[in-house]
Amino acid sequence: KSKLQTFSVPAEHACSWNVRRRNSPHVCLCMQNLKNLEESEKQLAQRDREKSAVEKALRTKDDELMGKIREADTAAKALTGCLLSMNETSSNLSKTEALLKKLTEEMKSLKEAKENAAAQLPNAIQPSSSPAVGAAKPDNAPKKEDGVNAGSAQDTTALDPDTHPKPNF
């Protein structure tokens, strides 16, 4: 018999030895190692597929998250624009309110000045108690038969003596 059959072959080197007999313990070890190797390769392939699936799911989630981040950024920019517009409007409103308050105070002071001036005028000259200068006198006063007004003495003296001579009775 050959020398190769008398040596015992370690399991890690079983594939490199040239063995002629199929029923030898060395052939059984090689077959077992081959089965273990195939099983390990299947497990590695399965892990690679799982890893690829997880990476794909992570990329999908990452894309979704980036889309939501972009939407949030757009919304934040829009809100910032609205806040700036609101602040500007508020500032303009404050200026308008201050101007309105100032005008109201000026109107109030003018009314008070008018009332004070009216109070200082003599009662005979106040515009509410006497007609304005140059205003037409009412024509509903009773008339005398000769055409002269039958009003008070003040009515007859109010006429200019040069243009309206006194009637002789």
UniProtKB/TrEMBL annotation:
Native organism taxonomy: Eukaryota, Metazoa, Ecdysozoa, Arthropoda, Chelicerata
Region (Disordered): 111-169
UniProt-recorded name of the protein: Uncharacterized protein
Entry superkingdom: Eukaryota
